[in-house]
Amino acid sequence: MEALKDVRILDMTHVQAGPTCSQLLAWMGADVIKFEPPQGDATRGQLRDVPNADSLYFTMLNCNKRSITVNMKSAEGKQVFVDLLKKCDIMMENFGPGVLERLGFTWDKIHEINPKIVVGSIKGFGSSGPYAEFKAYENVAQAMGGAMSTTGVPDGPPFVTGAQIGDSGTGLHLAIGLLAALHQARRTGQGQYVEVAMMDGVMNLCRVKFRDHQRLTRQSLAEYSVPTYKDMGEVPRAGNDSGGGQLGNAIHCKPHGANDWLYVVVQEAVWESLAKRIGPEVHMPDLVNDPRVATITERRKNQQLVWTLLNKFAEKYTKRELMAILNPLDVPCGPIMSTQDLATDEHVKGRDMWVELDHPQRGKWFNVGMPIKLSASPAKIERSPTLGEHNDEILRDVLGYSGDKIATLKAAGALSKPAKA
Ligand SMILES: CC(C)(COP(=O)(O)OP(=O)(O)OC[C@H]1O[C@@H](n2cnc3c(N)ncnc32)[C@H](O)[C@@H]1OP(=O)(O)O)[C@@H](O)C(=O)NCCC(=O)NCCS
After folding, report:
1. Does the annotation count 167 as an active-site position?
2. Of the listed 167, 212, 241, 260, which one is catalytic?
3. Global model pTM greater than 0.85
4. Do 52 and 79 contact (CB within 8 A), yes or no?
5. In Å, how far from its chain's centre is CA 399?
6. Rounded mean pLDDT of the chain?
């Protein structure tokens, strides 16, 4: 049985941050009702690859949900919303600041309608503080949460990371908050308001950079490959440094294409065997006793030499060959995997992380699978709904509306009028 089988979610989220969260909860078995404006979540039509079909942007973030369209700017639509609030355990949204309040639904009002409901809200910057009124997208959150200033190289521009830590990362944070609040609501009968700001979520994921920020008030950072000094103030960008207690870097391998790299962690425990293995091939047979790299203190100081030697060693090996050499030595390492590598990888396939699905508008497509594996409740991944696919089903089965009532609502435009004139 699915872990969240008896949980119903009124999901007003759109774009990526909120849908990431509700898709995970749906994969854990919750009945997620995607509550959309009549024109649908904007991502249905964004970055389309198949004409007139829901985009991959939408399908990859909205699996296992049911879709209902409701015009919240009509009195009848608002009544459908109120009725659904009474039938759901969780309501969640990631509208711009003040949107829900403008529609007439403050947290107090929702709590009054259903005291047990948990409300989840994602905002760029939360509901308090000088930034509260600003909208946000992924890279705005990466910029303002500390990720961009610490990603890249010191003499280059700040960089965004490919992992969507602002959007999807915030969705993960919200899922944790919602499950905690739901647990409490089931104990106490009282729901609560769960808010996650994207900027806060990114800061949380940059925690180790704030560790280094404070260390800099006392000392330079010996493990950084770029210059640091006491009281320099801001944590510098440090390329592919490991960022942890062990030295690490990306090593370029044969045939030296864009993704022919192996990330290698020169863990203290493996240095001796690593030095013995690479030394002879880089014309330094006694590398293990070389005073410049013999101790961790010296290796930190002279880490450029370590990287130069490893890169030299790697010249005649592919990333997979180098990995095969380092694995028996117990050296932690991993090839830089391209999207193509991952989409065809046996390990990925075996763990159900690249899942083939069918869709009435677009045919066969793939989704990234469920990364959280529950032993007794494995996720069964189903395609995303088409716009309003479950209108009648939800009005009838969840709300108990009669056929006549549904027809009257439709005639009044409660489900179909464009939200904005
Ligand atoms: C993502 C974001 C920038 C998009 O901005 P946007 O496209 O202007 O959308 P907003 O959320 O501000 O507004 C949605 C509008 O649709 C309307 N709407 C939403 N659902 C509706 C429905 N079912 N029926 C009628 N209208 C509806 C809202 O009332 C609002 O209209 P208003 O501006 O007249 O009040 C913004 O939603 C945001 O900052 N969200 C919080 C942070 C976030 O999650 N960002 C990451 C997204 S991946």
Report:
1. yes
2. 167
3. yes
4. no
5. 33
6. 97
